[in-house]
Amino acid sequence: MNNVMTRRTVSALAAIVPLTLLTAACGSENEEPKSAAPTNPTTARRGYPLDPIKTAMTIAFVPKQLGGNLYFAAASKGGREVVEKLGSTYKEVGTSDSTDTAGQVKYINQLTDEGVDAIVVSAQDPDALCGALKHAMGKGIPVVTYDSDTRPECRNAFVSPADPDQLTFPMVLSLAQQIDYKGDIAILSASESATNQNNWIKYMKEDLDTDPRYSSIKLVTVVYGDDDSDKSYTLTGSLLKKYPNLKGIIAPTSVGITSAAKYLSQSPSKGKVKLTGLGTPNGMREYVKDGTVESFELWDPSELGKLAAWTAESLASGQITGREGQGLRGMGGQLFVLGKNGVVNLGDPTAFTAKNINKYNF
Ligand code: RAM
User: Fold this and answer.
1) Side-chain half-sphere exposure of 318, counting CA atoms within 13 A
2) What angle do CA 259, 260, 263 make, to 5 degrees?
3) What is the mean pLDDT of the chain?
4) Domain spanning 164-298: which CATH class is it, in words?
């Protein structure tokens, strides 16, 4: 046991030291890296523990959804900031439809053909992208999933917003408290194949089934709005019609919760049918102010994008390989350590209420 811990600590430190130097090297634009840059970028991609290198790479983001989704817009902004700060080129491609998995596969293959230095993807499906991603990795292109994962063997590392338990537990508890621990509830999700959504739903169901405080709460259905505003809005109306005794909705999607809030705010169910889940403060502000929603949560998507970009740069420059126990420092100097299966968690989510929502702008 001690040996394992010692090995992990040593390997984490080995990864951290060059990263700290890399940060320092990037502090001044004209400053040359302190030690020799590797002559062969392919070697760097294979993950050898190299000295700090001057980064001039192309890092490509493939969000789960492009277009009006505020969540991914914020994540991309953070990702771009880090990539450009490191002197690399930020590239972004993707589909506007969060169910267009074939589109994601097509973009990943394109990026592989172009020979980008790393791919950062929020996966619409745990399996469907695997062939394309494995092909990319086979060509020496590191793959980072963020927000929504694939099967672990289809990427090098996963930048997860938070531990799923820490994310779902407060959502279920908050809704339970608001409905006095009894009545029918529903979940309004995004797309049916989204890894992150399905994982969170699994945890929520487990909570509802096993926590004795929830024995009088019944989950009547899970519906999928595909992160499409109109579809999620219409589905909210259908839920209210089909389940007239519905007491609450959990929507763990930024598009879904805003659409549901919009519907409720205009209906007689405002304030009566409770709503919580995951949303952006900018998308939810008016519905918190008008009393439709008491509280919801989220992490800072821009920080998620930053950490994803930083992980990709660290992999592509050979500073880390995605192995458990390796460490990397965020731009602010905070240490993140890769856990089992190369998963790194951003941290705990924030709960937003009328009291604090004005402090946030994303
Ligand atoms: C939507 C997407 C995304 C999820 C956020 C909270 O934008 O479904 O994957 O993490 O909501």
Assistant:
1) 19
2) 90
3) 87
4) alpha beta
Domains of the chain by residue range: 3-161+301-347, 164-298
Nearest CA to ligand 1 atom 11: 253
Ligand 1: residue of 278, 280, 297, 350 to mutate (most ligand atoms within 8 A of CB) is 278
Q: Hey, do 3-161+301-347 and 164-298 end up sharing a CATH topology, with the first three levels equal?
A: yes
Per-residue pLDDT tens over the stretch 63-119: 999 988 999 999 999 999 999 998 899 999 999 999 999 999 999 999 999 999 999
Query: What pLDDT, on the 0 to 100 scale, is given for residue 86?
Result: 87
What are φ and ψ of residue 274, in 5° steps? -85, 150
pLDDT at position 56 is: 84
> The dihedral of CA 99, 297, 338, 325: what is its sign?
negative
CATH of domain 3-161+301-347: 3.40.50.2300
Q: Establish whether residue 253 lines the binding site of ligand 1, counting it when its CB lies within 6 angstroms of any ligand atom.
A: yes
- Kindly state if the Cβ of 278 falls inside 6 Å of ligand 1: yes
Angle between helices 195-210 and 164-178 (to 10 degrees): 50
- Tell me the two tokens of residue 88: 């690399």
Predicted pLDDT at 46: 34
Residue nearest to atom 6 of ligand 1 (CA): 253
CB-side neighbour CA atoms (13 Å) of 155: 30
Q: Where are the alpha helices (DSSP H) in the chain?
A: 2-27, 41-45, 70-85, 101-114, 130-138, 164-178, 195-210, 229-242, 254-265, 281-289, 301-316
Question: Number of C-alpha atoms within 13 angstroms, CB side, residue 217?
Answer: 29
- Distance, CA 191 to ligand 1 centroid (Å)? 10
